[in-house]
Amino acid sequence: MPRLHIRRFLLTFLLLALLKTQSTGAVPSESQDIWRVDSRAIAQLRADEQNFSKLKYYRWKNNRWQVSDAETFFDTQQAEIPLHFFALGFTLTTQQITQTGFGIVRHFDPNKPCRIVFWDWYSDRNSGTYRHDIRKRLPIADNTGDYLALFLQKLKPQSKTCLFGFSLGNRVICEALEALRKNDRCPEGLRIHLVIAGAAIDWDTFAKGHQHGEVTQIVEKIMVTYNPHDCVLRFYPAIYGCRCRPAALGSKGLPMQNIDPAYRNQFENVNVERSIGGKHQTLVHVQSPAFRNRISTYFFFE
Predict the structure, then answer these.
(1) DSSP string over the chain
(2) Domains of the chain, each with CATH number or no CATH
(3) Average of pLDDT values for 79-90?
(4) Mean pLDDT in the chain?
(5) What's the pTM?
């Protein structure tokens, strides 16, 4: 290939790469109020009001994170503005959570006001085998969910919130809703939608009589995206002992026949295999047509 053609090729490649980088890090619109709540320092402490006050708050302003506080968050929260929580998966650092969170927001209509919280939990990869590391994260995810339940209790009456989880992050949001239900402290008129993608939780967790079978009592709508060929979730049963090896919800989908008949119409079971192949990545799920076509319904209550 002539040298001139090589230069043109490289220039084109670099321009495309730059455009991709810019689109991934696109600045949110003024109607999108972005927050990050950091629970890493208290991840293994009991979830009570005293430790809850140790959560760290950051607000995205002037193209950077600025330190804020709980008083500002809850005083400025408006019930009529949809509030979204993102709880993402295992091995993500704070920087990766931020990058992925902005990648999700990029698919929202910039003209629709919303407040978005990146729930930054202690999900970093540590030493040892993946199986051992994940097993150590399970109680942390559950404890983090208890903190999120305390957070939800403080929202204004008639608020609308959509909780989005990916992979192990779904344990955080499901535990939060279970704790909220058990404590019976939902703000009056709180409307909740749940979006569960690539879930690293038991496939029958919402079945009648199972761990989160009664979450439906406080949730309006639940969308589950699953992929039978997910290359990561096929190993999900290995995190358990030999006798109990349930499949992952994110690979098998909901067992609709086992869902309480009174609540089946609240669920939507969406197979995204054709769109994403065997990938286990947050933004791959979000970019699928099935997901994007439902953003207004689940995140904006339309």
Answers:
(1) --HHHHHHHHHHHHHHHHHHHHHHTPPPPTTEEEEEEE-GGGTTS--SHHHHTT-EEEEEETTEEEEE-HHHHHHH--TTS-EEEEE--TT--HHHHHHHHHHHHTTS-TTS-EEEEEEE-S----SS-HHHHHHHHHHHHHHHHHHHHHHHHTSPTT-EEEEEEETTHHHHHHHHHHHHHHHT-PPTT-EEEEEEES--SBTTTTSTTSTTTTGGGT-SEEEEEE-TT-TTGGGGGGGS-SS--PPBHHHH---GGGS-GGGGGGEEEEE-HHHHTT---HHHHHHSHHHHTTHHHHHS--
(2) 32-299 (3.40.50)
(3) 94
(4) 88
(5) 0.88
